[in-house]
Amino acid sequence: MKKIIWILFLFFFGNNFSFAKTINIEDKILLNVPENFNYIKLETDEVADYYEEFFSSLGEYTAFYYIGTDDSIEFANAIINDQDKLLEPIIKKMEKKNFSTEKSMMNFLSKEIKKLIKKYKYQGVMWVLVSEENLEDTDYDLFEIVESLKNMSQADMNKTALEYKKELNDEISIDGLEGLDLKISKFKIEKNKMNSPTLDLKLAANMFNINWDMEIYAYLKNNKPIIVGSECIGTCKGISGVKNKIVYSKIKTSTSSSDIVDQLNSLNELYKSGVLTKEEFEKAKKKILN
User: Fold this and answer.
1) Are 184 and 203 in contact (CB under 8 A)?
2) Residues 131, 61: contact at Cβ < 8 Å?
3) Domain total of the chain
4) Does residue 225 sit in the same domain as residue 260?
5) What is the pLDDT of residues 137-184, one digit of tens each?
6) With 0-12 CB in 10 A as exposed, 13-18 as middle and 19+ as buried, what is 145?
7) Does residue 289 lie within any of the structural domains?
């Protein structure tokens, strides 16, 4: 028994284990995250240019959040809003160096960036984007694609995913980015627990001998886009597998008529997908209506 307790002690504390908590983003999405994670809302103009290629079709009325440790959020925020200040010490060092080859310069840059990551205690961040606009109004073509997926079998969605993966490969010009080994490590279309078509995308890259990974999990809730993602530069903790951190089973309570309709629709989706039993469905519906 003592041996087992000792093994568990080493596992939990040796891996910097922290218990999970649930955070609520705008009453639109719940996420299970490590206890030491917090979140901040970024102003739209701060992220518009940085993520424009990904999210430009979702309309103007979007909200963007970073989720992670305070140190990781600070570092990720600086990458968007204060790159010059963040990289200035490294650039000054490079100006004083007389590199004999491009490889030696790249090796120096790699080491300095790794030092910077360590200095900021960066461990990666999750992020959430929620839109106030119906996708049908902001990107009708994309909305029609999502609608067409609703009646597809998983086999048909797999075939469709292969086609879109090829298109994405061509669009982001993976082979044309010099010095960047970028790959689509996962591209899957599936239905989530609310029976909504969902994109599950993972990108993996290596530049300056540093790994970079991104996850994107996107779906519609009441026809409004919700995107959950993660970014990792180097080695990260607690941010991978974003789709498994989403909590679908808890229903928001509200008194406004529009919210009640939204809740009933969400509740019905949960019941149809098998997440709720008939008894749980009737009980939750009664609670909302009362």
Assistant:
1) yes
2) yes
3) 2
4) no
5) 999 999 999 999 999 999 999 999 999 998 887 776 544 444 567 789
6) middle
7) yes
